[in-house]
Amino acid sequence: MRFLFLIILIISAQFAFSQSNAPTKKQLLKTFKNSIRQDKSGWISPTSNPWVICNRDSAFYKADTIELYSANFHIECCNSINWTFYKKDAFVLTRMKICEEPTTISAPKAEDFFTIQVREIDGELILETFCQAQLVDTYKVLKIEKNTYPKCITLVRLAIKRPLPK
């Protein structure tokens, strides 16, 4: 009886640890879609529920790993980059400074509107950002923490500066 219990325990443990908690394309796109808080007038509000990335020491542009925090969370960071999704695969990027009075946010220009493409390649979730149909950055999505407060998406920048094969 103990032998049978031990075998069942081992099989259960292997099954539990073999299940991948890797994020999926569907999860990521649903997370972005659920963050959209735009009215139906066609006007895009860049301050409406953005994903916030701390830009301390230009980290957004230089760091290998970046974290996107849901808008409900006020990170202790004077300079931030915000991604405000207005479609599940499109966002506007704004720059915000909160430590100086008055608080400022950049007005979006054409080069601040991005589309994304999300693909699963060799078991990894890849997010590419495009501006005016040109590839800007490629990221590997490490994790999506949606059951925590705040929600957090962790991305690792890849050195690819060209579209990946379809």
The shape, in one word, is globular
Helix and strand content put the structural class at: alpha+beta
Please provide the count of β strands: 9
Give a short account of the largest sheet: 9 strands, antiparallel
Task: Give the end-to-end Cα distance, rounded to a whole number of Å.
Answer: 53 Å
What is the averaged pLDDT score?
A: 82
Oligomeric grouping of the chains = single chain
The total number of structural domains is 1
Q: Helix-strand pattern, N to C?
A: HHEHEEEEEEEE
Tally of helical runs: 3
Strand content: 35-45%
Helix coverage percent: 10-25%
The value of Rg in angstroms is: 19 Å
**Spans of at least 5 consecutive residues with low confidence:** 13-20
Short précis:
The protein is α+β, with helices and mostly antiparallel strands. It has helices at residues 2-18, 25-34, 59-62, and strands spanning 51-54, 65-69, 79-87, 90-97, 104-105, 113-121, 124-131, 134-145, 152-158. The protein starts with a helix and ends in an 8-residue tail after the last strand.
Write the layout of secondary structure elements.
Layout: H1 2-18, H2 25-34, E1 51-54, H3 59-62, E2 65-69, E3 79-87, E4 90-97, E5 104-105, E6 113-121, E7 124-131, E8 134-145, E9 152-158
Antiparallel strand pairs: 1-3, 2-9, 3-4, 4-5, 4-6, 6-7, 7-8, 8-9
